[in-house]
Design brief:
Helix content: 25-40%
Radius of gyration: 16 Å
Shape: globular
Largest sheet: 7 strands, mixed
Strand order of the largest sheet: 3-2-1-4-5-7-6
Length: 194
């Protein structure tokens, strides 16, 4: 009997990062949307979940002024992030947001929590969102970028199925007092506030 690794685990992601897999880069249009919705910070703590090679965390840290921690469950992704960093840069921490002890994080609460192309892969989305809410400071923002199912210009049903479904999107946005969205081709950016 073969078991499949959770798509939210290091067992799934580490081999992909270790073999040099590349993922969609943060575009200038996406950075502009972040700048509009998030604005500059003055050293407030930010947490980038599933930081990968660290482009988003570096943008938050260097361009927007957040004191950023990037977390990923893949040691290879974090090693790659550290090689691209200029000091002083974001802090990098190997952590699985769904299974590890959150007290291992450097801050008890964050003014900004981001997850880019991560939400889709969470096996237990309600639990993941509860953890995000637990870490978000009062008045903070949860910035989530996700591909929307069916938006790719292809007839390949596998590629069309990538992304989050309308039910996933409804779960993501449920219970927030402020919900702002913006679309970028196949992506939707969510700025969510308690």
């Amino acid at each position: 009997m073969t078991t499949t690794a959770s798509t939210a685990s290091a067992a799934y992601w580490e081999p992909l990062w270790a073999e040099g897999r590349q993922y969609r880069q943060v575009s200038n249009a996406e950075k502009q949307l972040m700048d509009q919705h998030l604005g500059p910070s003055h050293g407030c703590p930010a947490l980038d979940i599933g930081s990968g090679e660290g482009t988003l965390a570096r943008h938050l840290h260097h361009e927007l002024g957040y004191r950023t921690t990037g977390v990923d469950c893949s040691p290879s992704a974090l090693a790659l992030a550290a090689t691209h960093d200029s000091a002083p840069g974001p802090a990098w921490q190997c952590l699985n947001i769904t299974t590890d002890d959150l007290t291992a994080l450097p801050d008890p609460a964050y003014a900004l929590i981001t997850c880019r192309l991560v939400y889709r892969w969470m096996d237990n989305k309600p639990f993941f969102l509860d953890r995000v809410r637990q870490l978000l400071a009062p008045g903070g923002t949860f910035w989530c970028v996700a591909e929307i199912t069916g938006r790719r210009a292809t007839s390949d049903p596998v590629l069309q199925g990538l992304g989050i479904t309308p039910a996933d999107a409804e779960l993501l946005t449920h219970g927030w007092s402020v919900i702002r969205t913006a679309d970028l081709d196949v992506l939707r950016c969510y700025a969510l506030r308690p």
